[in-house]
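ok so heres the complex, two chains, lmk if somethin looks off
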Amino acid sequence: MKTSLRTHTCGELTANNIGEKVTLCGWIQKIRKLGGMTFIDLRDRYGITQLAFNAETNPDLCKQIEPFGREWVIQVTGTVAERYSKNKNIPTGDIEILAEKITVLNESLTPPFTIEDESDGGDELRMKFRYLDLRRNPVKNNLLFRHKLGIAIRNYMNNIGFVEIETPMLVNSTPEGARDFVVPSRLSHGEFYALPQSPQTFKQLLMVSGFDRYFQIVKCFRDEDLRADRQPEFTQIDCEMSFITQEDILQTFEGLIKYIFKEIKGIDIEPIERITWHDAMKYYGSDKPDARFGMRFVELNNVLQHKDFKVFNEAELVVGIVAKGCAHYSRKQLDELTNFVKRPQVGATGLVYIQCQEDGHFKSSVDKFYDQNDLQAVAKECGAEAGDLILIMAGPRMKTQTQLCQLRLEMGSRLGLRKAGEYKLLWVVDFPLLEWDEETQRYYAMHHPFTAPKPEHEAMLESDPGHVNANAYDLVINGTEVGGGSIRIHDKELQKRMFKALGFTEEEAQKQFGFLMNAFQYGAPPHGGLAFGFDRMCSVLCDADTIRDFIAFPKNNAARDMMLGAPTPISDAQLKELGLK
Amino acid sequence: MKTSLRTHTCGELTANNIGEKVTLCGWIQKIRKLGGMTFIDLRDRYGITQLAFNAETNPDLCKQIEPFGREWVIQVTGTVAERYSKNKNIPTGDIEILAEKITVLNESLTPPFTIEDESDGGDELRMKFRYLDLRRNPVKNNLLFRHKLGIAIRNYMNNIGFVEIETPMLVNSTPEGARDFVVPSRLSHGEFYALPQSPQTFKQLLMVSGFDRYFQIVKCFRDEDLRADRQPEFTQIDCEMSFITQEDILQTFEGLIKYIFKEIKGIDIEPIERITWHDAMKYYGSDKPDARFGMRFVELNNVLQHKDFKVFNEAELVVGIVAKGCAHYSRKQLDELTNFVKRPQVGATGLVYIQCQEDGHFKSSVDKFYDQNDLQAVAKECGAEAGDLILIMAGPRMKTQTQLCQLRLEMGSRLGLRKAGEYKLLWVVDFPLLEWDEETQRYYAMHHPFTAPKPEHEAMLESDPGHVNANAYDLVINGTEVGGGSIRIHDKELQKRMFKALGFTEEEAQKQFGFLMNAFQYGAPPHGGLAFGFDRMCSVLCDADTIRDFIAFPKNNAARDMMLGAPTPISDAQLKELGLK
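and the predicted structre for the whole thing:
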């Protein structure tokens, strides 16, 4: 990294360089005075090197640096010397530079927050001055990690014959799915491009073209109200293959995932377990289970609906989990859990517990309705042992599953079962093809309208659409959906039936997806694929809370760029030219 | 590339596989009947393999394939056999598959044009059915080339310490420069994002952040009226470095370019020559000279303004080129050249020629005004020899240079001096910082408003802005600008002076680029960079006429996607939600 302005970076000098004359450039991290000595920590992307200034032997230089402050940019020439008190924490900790000449390359105002691993700047301030936030090691390292991951993925995909092909960003708007960002056309007033939510149709067209194996690391856009872990623009690792079955896809991308873990994290992962969507819901109440710990759901309808407890008797589902060794939970702790499930975010009406005491007795919040034999039967059904706590919820099936899922995750966190640095991967397979929406009274595609029904379910597409499963699959790591995909429809007639099942008129289908259905007339091969969320993959691999940490210039929850101030009003002339005025 | 549906691809079987039972998938390229034999050429991305069907030994199979047509997708199982008449032109030409079982994976309508290297389809038809056009070898190979080039560039940049960082696509609109595509905000009616024309300000901010070496292969957008070689969305290889001088940048990217030529084309290129912008204009009439051939301009004011020829005497510039060995040009050929320069695209009023005849005599279109001695003086000045043709134009300096440049290129083409497969690279350096626009009566930045004046010219920024040069540079290959960049301003005060020179009020500058100028207050390092046009680099390296050939789904000259039909009207509900109704 030698340039005309430096001989070395701030991260590379060691005891091997002692005696060498060097020139470094960087930012002042810290200035310390110790008696007649002044020390400056000089920082660049590659590390920190200590500069030493001796007031006795070099008073002019010491005078020159007096006004210097944090984050000034300087160039320094000096000789590498062994350091008196070594710093074992950094690679350059054995040496320092006896400074001989300093040039100020740029001054700096005092930054609005400290440029340290732990900064004193609040979220909003750091976003506004993102260029300073990016100087901090944790943020910088996130972006270096992302780069490294991108390079590794591209080389792996290239090596197994995938071709990266760029698909367009100015496409057509499709009302199906999330909301599009649109771009007014200057040449055709009243007409709009849309920014792609994914290159889905293009990658299918590339399969029709015979590219056989396509991938792309690509920006995608969704104009949705943002949750903590969503951004209006995000990056996908988008992939598609021809002449394959689901098994080929799972094997191919299991290879990629294994490679990533080995190459980037140094971890050998085990063959990825598979679970059906149905079982994931049944045992974890979620289509993206955190399987780092068990605590599987046990259905208790049979053992709890024979007494006089209406809440259970009237419930579609009575279901429990076992918290190992938690029988000793205090009243207060149990109340906390009840309050947790009653929070609006979870929305349950209550929680029943059974404490399996060490002495063989059971204590429960429903002692009024169930005797010791009843409770023992529950414990047996759950596989609970003395010392364990059983937590039970009841109500409509899906709702109760989802609520108990949140309690399970909460218990996992409380018991330290969701360990950072431990990775449990799952393929969730056999998703339903469609899901019913009560509000609009129609079916929606669970993945997207191009997903193929399982061949053995194809016949039910009209007669029993709700029970048609798809060869659709998600990759879940530690409870986060990192990617997903499906085998696609490649037959024009089946695609028509699918659009019909989704409530499209033939005209609507033709208008929106005509080009794809036309393409299917000219020899579409069997194909399928998947897409990983690149931002999310980064955050999961680094045990981070949000994808925002891995995006250089993210938007806030109101989809604003705090640094740029975007979006902004545009001029009347621009509006007029676009036909918007 | 084995999958559940095939054991091999159509490009890999050779004599080594004879006797093996294989399964292939692909598209039917051609069906031929020869007596009792039917042959099918089966095509996939990897190649073509011949399938053989014997009516005598396998009548049922022959019956099954009878309805098959071009572009049907089939799966075939059979045994590899030596071919009777070998095809030396393809890797699989020694073998054929004795077909035993066929499955139709998809039928195909007859494609609207032939899927051959030379297609019978017109441009518009092929764009509309781009997914079929992409099946053709030349188009397919262009995209494979682009992929390969992308991988090579990324690995080279990674190896020399550059980090790929994604910058946002939803940014703020800046009226300076080309027209922006804008994106209405749903959350803030009346406000707009813009799609980036380049990540220029972001990469500078990343330098302020200390990333030291950044690159990105990234989509950029310009809402301009399209010329043949422009697209509304295009891809840049965008790069920036800190703590460098212009020399570091030229060396670094000369390294990249050398690597690309060696790795991708197998060509060792010579050290890249440098020419100043001033000399490029003087000797080639262009800031992107095609230097595969000489034919340099010779200024002839001194030797041609002493006689009574008003056209020359009143001209700011009289300038000529020598066409070697063209003295024999006929009246008709000379008229063609005159007509060429008179075309509206060139716009000259006339052309003067001097034929340096083999016998030592000169014949000229201005014999009335100049005698043999005069013409000999011109020939001497030009270095023309017996047998050469001198072509002379006159008029205002810049205009005449530009016109003669076009004639020079025309002559280069006529004389076969612009050879495909021969590459002449140039760094054009020392661009003027500003260029004057007559229409708006103001200076515009020749590169962009962040380009630094040469330090020795800085003082003239107010007093003589038109003569300030910049450390700005373009890479030119065979007359095409493939990339360009500059050393940037990293000082807030200098940036302010620059905006002032461009006619910005302080308010306008602050409003549009405040975030960048603010960033410069917090320790911006000296930095600079460049960007290559990725699409254009592909086309130049492949001697192709247009970048469109290297884009999977390009737009036409009206910025429409002919396949999608984009842009399109959007629904009233969408317009309303965006505050546009």
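quick notes: Residues 408 and 414 of chain A are 10 Å apart (CA to CA). thats all i got rn
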